[in-house]
Design a protein that fits this description.
170 residues, elongated
Length: 170
Amino acid sequence: MAHIFNAKNLPFELRQSPVPEFSWHTSQKLAELVKSKHLHFDVRSLDPGKYSYPYHFHRNAEELFVILSGKAILRTPQEFIELDEGDIVFFEMGPEGAHQMYNHTENPCFYLDIRTAADIDVCEYPDSGKVNILPYREIYEVKDKVDYYKGEENVSDKWPHEIHKIISAR
């Protein structure tokens, strides 16, 4: 069954972060309405003078923006570039796909945001040194990264004494 949406007829809700520079309007979770299994997609409106999400990239999701109307400046690892109506931008997984937008105009910038739906994704924020485990929204600082085996010493001490008797009897 085809599901048709038009940005002019969608209800939008304001998403205001505690940091005033990050603010946008988003449609309902359209992918949930149609029970999409492999895509997340929303129509977003970036207000004048506002930034989209913090500068970030995904480790396990690809993302695509389609500018429906308006303009915005796109930040990538390579450049800052003005996006205009009709532009389609693909963001690959990993640091090369890092991105952020800023609406430098006096009019809203409407865009379609399409993402692949992974069970779990890790989103990294290079400016602030954080990682976000999605969909759980567990956020940690990269500086706290530890070795895989940290705290795993003396593993036999963590097993019950009764089990040691069984092992040593063999």
